[in-house]
């Protein structure tokens, strides 16, 4: 059985799919009541599952019930790649790198085989270097792979 975070994430993603403009507004307390959980659980899901590196923008408004707007990013490929490169920066840990690879897969930019190859390439086992530079090496490898994908995808 799925945990409550997975269920909340799925619920919000279904709301986004049904939305005509790829954005939804929710109220944290109402959603918490619906799922019989604390509002902090909703915050956790929004923070961990709906971040920029996963392709979402979350805006929180205070007052009037605490409305939260969640929007799926839909930007042209150059700006999208630029945003991902900015997110990667000069250094990236394995978890965040895997999240970006998963995002590329979910968006249909890479196929399952490419996803698995990219994950293998950025794994700690593949990067045999001192710990203090592993994340820099990982960032360079991920950026290089993304550039190859970007150049070879006409409909990206």
List the main descriptive attributes of the protein structure presented here:
about 160 residues; mainly alpha; Phenylalanyl-tRNA Synthetase, Chain B, domain 1; 2 domains; three-stranded antiparallel sheet
Give a written overview of the molecule.
The protein is mainly α and 156 residues long. 58% of the residues lie in helices and 10% in strands. Strand 2 and strand 3 form a beta hairpin. Helix 2 crosses helix 3 (39-49). The radius of gyration is 17 Å and the shape is elongated. The termini are far apart.
Gist?
With 156 residues, the protein is mostly helical.
CATH architectural name of the largest domain: Orthogonal Bundle
The CATH class of the largest domain:
Mainly Alpha
Helix and strand content put the structural class at mainly alpha
Give the beta-strand count.
3
Q: Which shape, going by the Cα principal axes?
A: elongated
Strand content: 5-15%
Number of domains: 2
Which regions are unreliable across 5 or more consecutive residues at pLDDT < 50?
none
Radius of gyration: 17 Å
Q: What is the helix/strand order?
A: HEHHEEHHHH
Main β-sheet description:
3 strands, antiparallel
Helix content: 55-70%
Oligomer: single chain
Strand order, main sheet: write it out.
1-3-2
Describe how the helices and strands are arranged.
Blueprint: H1 4-18, E1 23-27, H2 28-35, H3 39-49, E2 56-60, E3 67-72, H4 77-88, H5 94-106, H6 112-121, H7 131-152
Antiparallel strand pairs: 1-3, 2-3
